[in-house]
Amino acid sequence: MVSSISDKRVPFENPLSGQGRILWLTGLSGSGKTTLSLKIAEKLQLDACFPIVLDGDSMRKGLCADLGFSEADRSENIRRIGEVARLIADAGLVVIVACISPIKRDRERVRALVAPGRFVEIFLDCPLEVCEERDPKGLYRRARNDELAQFTGISSIYEPPVNADVHLHTAVNSVEECVRKVMTCIGK
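and the corresponding structure tokens:
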């Protein structure tokens, strides 16, 4: 007997309530956004949820390569990333965004793109000194030597979230502890 494709289908159940969501990680360079986003993605994959990770550095090299670091360009960078994230979430997938996104107004605009409860702001709170110690690319050193203009945390402001959905202290808590806190927040 020949089996049809429909005989082998497994009912799709989105582990995060059947709706796509945006998990938006914000924090200074070196606060752990990329590391944590990849670990969250790994954990979600174990639960048969296959998230998409949008990393700020990667987006800057591709979709946003034409943008600089002026206030207007930074806002446009976040707008573009937010629109891509919305499209992914609207398709029913979970998207994890790891992006400094220093301006509160820009993060609020992205939140407004999706229905309530579908945007989870995750603040990676890490002291500037720790971020500088972790700096694998030498960006803080270059910024302190005036080789990089408009560097967030040094010569450009970062507006920390006041009421983030998840507030992580990445200088104190391990990556595993941070992942657990995020999973608890999203009901996993």
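(Above: one complete record from the training split.) The helical segments are 33-46, 56-61, 71-90, 104-112, 128-134, 139-144, 175-185.
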